[in-house]
Design goal:
9 helices; Helix Hairpins; 2 domains; 229 residues; mainly alpha
Length: 229
């Protein structure tokens, strides 16, 4: 029959000298009364087990969002162009609008040139001159309007290109932070994403360094004990 208390008895005797002279029966009662059971595995395995039992890392650990692995998440997000894919669609539309505005400007320049030629011919015909001057004025107004539109659309396209370039040049962490901020925080990400990118190694390190857990070797296996039994 397996002796489930054996790792805990060895742990108490080796790491807590007050118990080294206790009998197995006395230690077994103390273990039962205080719930001192070693988790078979290292601290990182223990942390994962705690999160699994509680429904996820964010429900388990204090300041859990600080342990989210933004670097790895950002690297994967970049591969999917998460922050720029929708901007590429907007960019393509703006490029079409710029091309259309350029055509409008060229057509307006042609109309103005023709209107000026008509005015030149009408200088010797007073009855036609006023109408020709009006056509020139209208053509100039149209050209100015189309030029303003072209300038506006080109500036929007330049801004779009700048935004895309800025996001593509972000560090992986900054990229992920921007995405998470847009989503409303780590807590708004799916459970699968929270679990996949949670840095259990860092949690385990802090648990060990903070005195919350102790790893103990027994019979060729690693056990993790909660220090706050």
């Amino acid at each position: 029959m397996a002796d489930y208390h054996a790792p805990a008895r060895a742990f108490l005797r080796e790491d807590h000298f007050d118990y080294d002279d206790k009998t197995d029966e006395e230690l077994d009662k103390y273990i039962e009364d205080n719930g001192i059971y070693g988790f078979e595995g290292d601290t990182e395995d223990y942390a994962r087990s705690l999160a699994e039992d509680a429904g996820g890392p964010l429900e388990t650990f204090t300041n859990a969002e600080n342990y989210f692995d933004y670097d790895s998440f950002g690297s994967d997000l970049k591969m999917d162009s998460a922050l720029t894919s929708h901007l590429e669609d907007d960019k393509a539309q703006l490029e079409d609008e710029v091309e259309e505005a350029e055509r409008d400007v060229k057509d307006a320049e042609k109309d103005l040139s023709e209107a000026k030629a008509t005015l030149k011919e009408a200088k010797n015909r007073p009855e036609d001159k006023e109408e020709a001057e009006g056509e020139v004025e209208s053509a100039e107004w149209d050209l100015e309007s189309y030029q303003d539109t072209l300038t506006e659309k080109q500036e929007e396209l330049d801004d779009m290109n700048g935004t895309i370039e800025e996001r593509e040049n972000m560090s992986d962490q900054a990229y992920a932070e921007e995405w998470v901020d847009q989503m409303g925080g780590v807590s708004e990400l799916g459970k699968e994403t929270q679990e996949r990118y949670f840095d259990y190694a860092s949690v385990a390190r802090d648990m060990d360094m903070g005195g919350d857990t102790t790893e103990f070797e027994y019979d060729g296996k690693t056990y993790t004990f909660n220090a706050h039994w």
